[in-house]
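Need a sequence for this fold. Nothing fancy.
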């Protein structure tokens, strides 16, 4: 039996405080400098935990590339970073840049308990989480085909990682949004010949 393709999905590091005050979606915000220093032990733990060798994938946003570079600086051998646009965060359209307090008046659906928007809520000019599932799923299938039997480390985003798990399990967006995906957490998926397998979700480095 052929070896599965292993996906090691990491949510990027904590963003800067001013970015956390708004709905940043696909805005190219900076990481928090203080957290980068404070969380060095987490980067070291990830550097030790992740498979070697592996294909490394980031999204077009700098926060994923900088997170990968911090893991390399903490001890993982530097690797080429392949950019996959289809694994970027949910695009919030006209709502990107809004303060969190401004959002409720614009919603057409009740917000999810663990996400600012319900799974089917589509901002003007943006995407719903259902849309994210429908673009992230095929991207994972393409990567699985391109790197069959290998390990693929993907530094991505909370919404996209939930979408990836939703694709693997065949569940809807609102169910996926119940999953906790913290910054720098590890979620592992395997693509076998006939099915996906979820190995873990939200594993924190060092725990």
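Here you go.
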């Amino acid at each position: 039996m052929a070896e599965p393709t292993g996906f090691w999905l990491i949510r990027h590091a904590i963003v800067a405080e001013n970015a956390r005050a708004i709905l940043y979606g696909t805005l190219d915000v900076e990481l928090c400098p203080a957290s980068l220093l404070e969380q060095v032990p987490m980067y070291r733990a990830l550097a030790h935990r992740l498979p070697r060798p592996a294909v490394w994938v980031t999204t077009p946003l700098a926060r994923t590339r900088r997170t990968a570079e911090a893991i390399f600086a903490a001890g993982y051998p530097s690797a080429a970073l392949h950019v996959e646009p289809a694994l970027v965060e949910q695009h919030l359209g006209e709502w990107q840049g809004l303060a969190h307090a401004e959002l409720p008046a614009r919603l057409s659906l009740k917000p999810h308990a663990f996400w600012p928007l319900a799974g089917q809520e589509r901002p003007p000019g943006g995407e719903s989480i259902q849309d994210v599932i429908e673009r992230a799923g095929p991207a994972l299938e393409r990567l699985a085909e391109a790197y069959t039997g290998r390990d693929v480390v993907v530094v991505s985003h909370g919404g996209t990682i939930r979408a990836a798990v939703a694709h693997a399990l065949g569940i809807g967006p609102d169910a996926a949004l119940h999953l906790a995906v913290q910054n720098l957490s590890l979620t592992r998926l395997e693509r076998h010949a006939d099915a996906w397998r979820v190995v873990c979700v939200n594993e924190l480095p060092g725990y």
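For context: The chain has one domain: 5-203.
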